Structure formats: structure tokens, C-alpha cells
């Protein structure tokens, strides 16, 4: 999403629902911007194509009117939501768009598999991705399945009304998923967490662990020499971190794309013993292999 300041100065918008076409176009553009000079340039270029394919796939997934969903909190909870088969039409569109480009062997084989798999197999793949634990044999397919689930959930989320959605105690107020990362706005220093699945953004007070809600023992880690556009927010209570992008320093940052492009910070955090609490569906598996 874009992060223009809210209409009324001083007003904090608690939840921003996604605008799917804009989201996937912006993500594709950002992946392409990040390619030059990045050691993972080929991978970022491939993910730009995945994001473009997601934009195209929106046409295959009817914008949802999830009227059978319960009212109130977490209306599209990913762990219990009964998926409409339309998500598989989105997957077929993504696979069709992507098979024409060249891929490392595991990803090419995964695309072949996804093009012919039976519905039951695809549903089982989707369940594994949504649990964040795809089977070892499904790793190469996981990012493509994740991409299709993002299209589906983002499309449904965009049809909701933000009013009446409760603030979430943990995770996305719309679908209950963990964030991919967060952004800190330049002028008013508001912090939004960005859903890894449905593309919604929710406000959370800064200097607070989104995962365990601890406010003590929070500190920040950055790669030496980095100009300060991205930091890991470390929580010593639960030992986890989430990345924050500071839009004042990095106005073009897009949380999912910039998360992939800043893996050096993950390596540094891992070396120091911190676990990642953010989830990036493009990094669940082996597409980069
Ligand atoms: Zn969500
Ligand atoms: Zn914590």
C-alpha cells in the first residue's frame, strides 16, 4: 500500500485495507528497482515477475463479497477460513504467466507440478503454506502457492469495510497472519505492520513487540554502514525480531520486496541468536535455488 498521511492531521488510521491492483503493481516495480547491484538480482527479478503475475491473476479471482464470514474480529482468519475454489483459478493464472520465463530447475519443476496437480493436492499445499510449514517436498512450490493465496486473500480483504474491525491482539486484524515487516512513517513516526498474506496494514504503537506485546527489552539492530532505512526490532522477552523500514530514509520501500532484498540483516540477526517473527511467503521455499 501507499502510506500517504491520513486525511485529518493527528488522526491515526488503525487499519488500512489493501488496494490489490495497486499493491501488486507497486511490488513488481519495487522488486525491479532493487535488482541493480543486489547480489540476489536474478532472484529479485524473478519475484518482480511473480508480483506482475499476481496483478494479472486478480482478474481470475472474483472480488470477494465474503458475506458468509462472521462479523467482528478477524473476518478472514486464514487458519479457519473455508477457501473458495477461485483461489486455484488465481494459481492457474500465475503458473500460466510464469512458465514462459526461465527458472532454476526446482522452481521450473514446481511450476510443472502446479500446472497439473489435482485440486486436493493444491489444497493440501495451501494448508501447509498457511501454517507456515510446507512439507520438505513442497518447498519449491510454496512461493507460487503463497503468491496465489495472497491474490485471493488480498482480493477478499479489499471488499471488506474497515469500520467495525476490531484492533487485533496479535497478527493481522483481517486474517490473523503475521506481518512480513513494518514501516515507520516519516513525519508522524507512526508504525504500521504489513500483513504477509492479505496486504492489510495495521497500526501498532512503536517500541512494542507485535508478537508477545512486550514493551520492555526492545532494541534495534542494523547492518553496519547502513544509512538507517531498515532496522530489526529485537524483543528480548521472546527472542524474536521484525524488520522495520523507515520511510523517511527509504521512501520507496515496499515491505515484502525490501524484506527479500535485505537478507543481510536477517543473517546478522540470526548470527546474534534472534529468531524471525515476520513471515515472507516468497521465502518459505526454494524458488531462489
Ligand atoms: Zn492479513
Ligand atoms: Zn516479543
Structure write-up:
- The chain has helices spanning 20-34, 41-57, 86-98, 105-116, 119-130, 142-158, 255-261, 263-271, and strands at residues 15-16, 179-184, 191-195, 201-203, 218-221, 230-235, 240-246, 275-276.
- The protein is α+β, with helices and mostly antiparallel strands.
- The chain has 2 domains: 17-158, Alpha-Beta Complex (FdhE-like fold), CATH 3.90.1670.10; 179-283, FdhE-like fold (Alpha-Beta Complex).
- Strands 1, 2, 3, 4, 5, 6, 7 and 8 form an 8-stranded mixed beta sheet that branches.
- Strand 3 (191-195) and strand 4 form a beta hairpin.
- Helix 2 crosses helix 3 (86-98).
Number of strands: 8
- For this structure, what is the CATH homologous superfamily of the largest domain? FdhE-like domain
Quaternary organisation of the protein chains: single chain
Average per-residue pLDDT, rounded, comes to 91
Q: Tell me the domain tally.
A: 2
Q: What general form does the structure show?
A: globular
- Based on secondary structure, the structural category is alpha+beta
Report the CATH architecture of the largest domain.
Alpha-Beta Complex
Bound molecules: zinc ion
Radius of gyration: 18 Å
The low-confidence parts are none
What portion of the residues fall into strands of 2 or more residues?
5-15%
Task: Summarize the helix and strand pattern as letters.
Answer: EHHHHHHEEEEEEHHE
Number of helices: 8
What is the CATH topology of the largest domain?
Answer: FdhE-like fold
Helical fraction equals 25-40%
Task: Quote the distance from N terminus to C terminus.
Answer: 29 Å
Which sheet architecture does the biggest sheet show? Answer: 8 strands, mixed
> Which CATH class of the largest domain is shown?
Alpha Beta
Amino acid at each position: 500500500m501507499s502510506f500517504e498521511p491520513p486525511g485529518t492531521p493527528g488522526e491515526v488510521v488503525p487499519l488500512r485495507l489493501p488496494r490489490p491492483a495497486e499493491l501488486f503493481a507497486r511490488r513488481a516495480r519495487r522488486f525491479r528497482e532493487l535488482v541493480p547491484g543486489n547480489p540476489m538480482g536474478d532472484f529479485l527479478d524473478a519475484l518482480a515477475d511473480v508480483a506482475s503475475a499476481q496483478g494479472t491473476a486478480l482478474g481470475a479471482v472474483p472480488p470477494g463479497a465474503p458475506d458468509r464470514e462472521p462479523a467482528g474480529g478477524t473476518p478472514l482468519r486464514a487458519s479457519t477460513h473455508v477457501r473458495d475454489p477461485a483461489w486455484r483459478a488465481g494459481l492457474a493464472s500465475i503458473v500460466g504467466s510464469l512458465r514462459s520465463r526461465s527458472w532454476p530447475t526446482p522452481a521450473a519443476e514446481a511450476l510443472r507440478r502446479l500446472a497439473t496437480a489435482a485440486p486436493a493436492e493444491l489444497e493440501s499445499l495451501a494448508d501447509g503454506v498457511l501454517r507456515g510449514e510446507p512439507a520438505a517436498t513442497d518447498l519449491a512450490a510454496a512461493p507460487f502457492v503463497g503468491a496465489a493465496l495472497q491474490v485471493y486473500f488480498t482480493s477478499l480483504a479489499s471488499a471488506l469495510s474497515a469500520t467495525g474491525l476490531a484492533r487485533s491482539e496479535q497478527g493481522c486484524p483481517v486474517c490473523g497472519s503475521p506481518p512480513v515487516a513494518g514501516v515507520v512513517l516519516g513525519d508522524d513516526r507512526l508504525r504500521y505492520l504489513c500483513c504477509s498474506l492479505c496486504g492489510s496494514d495495521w497500526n501498532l504503537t512503536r517500541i512494542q513487540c507485535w508478537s508477545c506485546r512486550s514493551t520492555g527489552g526492545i532494541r534495534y539492530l542494523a547492518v553496519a554502514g547502513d544509512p538507517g532505512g531498515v532496522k530489526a526490532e529485537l524483543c528480548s522477552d521472546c527472542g524474536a525480531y521484525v524488520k522495520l523500514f523507515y520511510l523517511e530514509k527509504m521512501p520507496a520501500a515496499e515491505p515484502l520486496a525490501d524484506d527479500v532484498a535485505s537478507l543481510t540483516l536477517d543473517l546478522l540477526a540470526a548470527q546474534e541468536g534472534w529468531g524471525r517473527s515476520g513471515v515472507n511467503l516468497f521465502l518459505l521455499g526454494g524458488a531462489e535455488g
